[in-house]
Automatic annotation (TrEMBL):
One of its GO terms (cellular component) is cytoplasm. It comes from Bianquea renquensis. This is Phenylalanine--tRNA ligase alpha subunit. Belongs to the class-II aminoacyl-tRNA synthetase family. Phe-tRNA synthetase alpha subunit type 1 subfamily. The lineage of its organism: Bacteria, Bacillati, Bacillota, Clostridia, Eubacteriales. Keywords: Aminoacyl-tRNA synthetase, ATP-binding, Coiled coil, Cytoplasm, Ligase, Magnesium, Metal-binding, Nucleotide-binding, Protein biosynthesis.
Length: 344
């Protein structure tokens, strides 16, 4: 028989067989019978070697075409059978009535979660990775790795909770800097929100448990103007208006130079009101250029790379955004208070 006829024969047979298929197992058998190692189509391929060049080319094309048709047909049939199966399963299942209207979702997000997610979205859109970090950390990560050596007076800036196993509750999100810098290397940009703990007396504006969001950006020409740009863009998104910022010198061992970033009061626009205690400016976010020691300790060449870091107080930001005056609301578990802060 001519090759062309053989191909036609296989095709006709396939079409006929496909008509009576009613299960996935059967379909699989047919797949193997045609496309498998010893399948009919594979067999046709093997016959090609006996043909001359021209005939080989022509038959080769025809076989390939058939092969493609058969694969497509089987794939389509397979989805069809699976859909039918799923539908049948649903109909047999009497536990659910899928035609009932859905109940509205109840519950609300915590105000800090709302602000955190909003910030994550903003930073993600600017190319920052979002990272999570432990709450129990080594002293090394919390202090040494961010340039606060043992017995350095700067350790007293943050009243630390020490655990029996020698580790600490992280006092700031900067404790993750070393790990994140090592993970990404240079260049990188990442934010890492997290819960922090400090041994503080609690009152309306102090908590021993609060949230921060750290951000870092490292690259070959990163400067203070990059820092200002990202902070301004992010804050303008959060407050939904143009925000003016200013930098004042601030000291933190892991940045050099270090700053306190203030925003012009978003309530009065700088003329003075109770929110800004009449000063026109609100202290918002410590930040600075990452100290070369911190880069070096994370294995990054501090001659080649520079970067900025900031430690945004998420709890503070949530208080400002929602006009919450008492920080104790956040950890109170008082649903009546917390449920007010829904966003759609
Ligand atoms: N980790 C500092 C703090 O909690 C804040 C900070 C972060 C300052 C990054 C500068 C750069 O007090």
């Amino acid at each position: 028989m001519e090759m062309k006829d053989k191909i036609e024969q296989v095709k006709a047979r396939f079409q006929e067989e496909m008509q009576s298929i009613c299960g996935t197992e059967e379909l699989e058998k047919i797949r193997v019978a045609y496309l498998g190692k010893k399948g009919l189509i594979t067999d046709l391929m093997k016959n090609l070697k006996d043909l001359n060049a021209d005939a080989k080319r022509e038959a080769g094309q025809q076989i390939n075409q058939l092969k493609q048709q058969v694969s497509e047909f089987i794939a389509a049939k397979s989805s069809e059978l699976e859909a039918a199966l799923a539908q049948a399963r649903l109909q047999q299942d009497t536990r659910y009535d899928i035609s009932l209207p859905a109940k509205p979702v109840t519950g609300t997000l915590h105000p800090i979660t709302i602000v955190q997610r909003e910030l994550e979205d903003i930073f993600r859109s600017m190319g920052f990775a979002v990272e999570d970090f432990k709450e129990v950390v080594t002293e090394y990560d919390n202090f040494e790795a961010v340039n606060i050596p043992k017995y350095h007076p700067a350790r007293d800036m943050q009243d630390t909770y020490y655990l029996d196993n020698g580790q600490v509750l992280k006092t700031h999100t900067s404790a993750a800097q070393n790990t994140i810098l090592r993970k990404y290397g240079a260049p990188c940009r990442a934010i890492f929100p997290g819960r922090c703990f400090r041994n503080e007396a609690i009152d309306a504006s102090h908590e021993n448990t609060f949230f921060q969001m750290e951000g870092i950006m490292v690259g070959e020409d990163i400067s203070i103007s990059n820092l200002i740009y990202f902070m301004k863009t992010m804050l303008s998104e959060v407050f939904q208006k143009d925000i003016t910022v200013r930098l004042r010198p601030g000291f933190f061992p892991f940045v050099e130079p270090g700053f306190e970033l203030d925003i012009q009061c978003h309530v009065c626009g700088g003329t003075g009101c109770p929110t800004c205690k009449q000063g026109g400016w609100i202290e918002l976010c410590p930040c600075g250029m990452i100290h070369p020691n911190v880069l070096t300790m994370a294995g990054i060449d501090s001659e080649k790379y520079t970067g900025f870091a900031f430690g945004l107080g998420l709890t503070r930001l949530a208080m400002m955004k929602f006009g919450i005056r008492d920080i104790r609301v956040f950890n109170s578990g008082n649903l009546k208070s917390l449920e007010q802060f829904t966003i759609q």
